[in-house]
From TrEMBL:
This is Granulin-like protein. GO terms for cellular component: extracellular region. It is found in: Secreted. Coiled coil: none annotated. The keyword Heme does not apply. Residues 93-106, 170-183 form the Granulins domain. Belongs to the granulin family. It holds the Pfam family Granulin. It comes from Plakobranchus ocellatus. SMART domains: GRAN. Keywords: Disulfide bond, Secreted.
Length: 215
């Protein structure tokens, strides 16, 4: 394997050649060219290439909050939900299984994508990444609190969310305490034997609009 020469070695070798061939102009030119070539090779062998990292891709969010990879198109599936067409800005076919490139039309009977005289085999959709499961806590009035919280009645009516799981709801309907603790309303504390904690304040639960019945 070729071992790059150091600058000292290159200059030393060149000096020896010049000393031996002082009277030959052609040899001097040869040595000069060889010297430049060796310097270039030595430099090239020691250059470290910088690694290039691709840009992070942004997922495409479908109407039901599921996601497809960047450069894909969300298309409805026959069984419900959405799938991913492996094309950007694609045309979703009415069979809800296939898709075509932008500008093409789906020929469902021929299983083709058509654009004038251009005919392509249509594309099959892949599954979208499911919507993350959020386990909200449903309160008695159908309002909701985030997972690992507790629904407690609110002073103004309805329910609020105590930021603790299985919490003790205080009778002032504003505060709450951890499971197993009692509310000390006069001191504003949570008590459990010798353990004393500052009580927690509830925040409003998420209210949901009532659905309109179909006529």
């Amino acid at each position: 394997m070729f071992k790059p020469l150091s600058k000292t070695e290159i200059i030393s070798n060149a000096s020896i050649l010049f000393a031996k061939e002082k009277s030959t102009a052609t040899m001097k030119m040869f040595v000069y060219v060889a010297l430049m070539a060796l310097v270039a090779i030595s430099h090239a062998m020691t250059v470290t290439k910088m690694e290039t990292f691709p840009n992070e891709k942004n997922d495409v969010t479908c109407p039901d909050k599921s996601t497809c990879p960047d450069g894909n198109t969300c298309c409805e599936l026959a069984e419900g939900g959405y799938g991913c067409c492996p094309l950007p800005e694609a045309v979703c076919c009415s069979d809800k299984m296939h898709c075509c490139p932008s500008g093409y039309k789906c020929d469902v009977s021929a299983s083709m994508c058509i654009k004038g005289d251009h005919i392509l085999t249509w594309f099959t959709k892949g599954p979208a990444k499911p919507v993350p499961v959020v386990n909200d806590v449903t309160c008695p009035d159908q309002s909701t609190c985030p997972d690992n919280t507790t629904c407690c009645e609110a002073a103004q009516g309805g329910y609020g969310c105590c930021p603790l799981p299985k919490a003790t709801c205080c009778s002032d309907k504003i505060h709450c305490c951890p499971e197993g603790y009692k509310c000390d309303l006069s001191a504003g504390l949570c008590l459990k034997g010798d353990d004393i904690l500052t009580w927690f304040t509830k925040y409003p639960a998420k209210r949901h609009a009532k659905s309109t019945p179909l006529v």
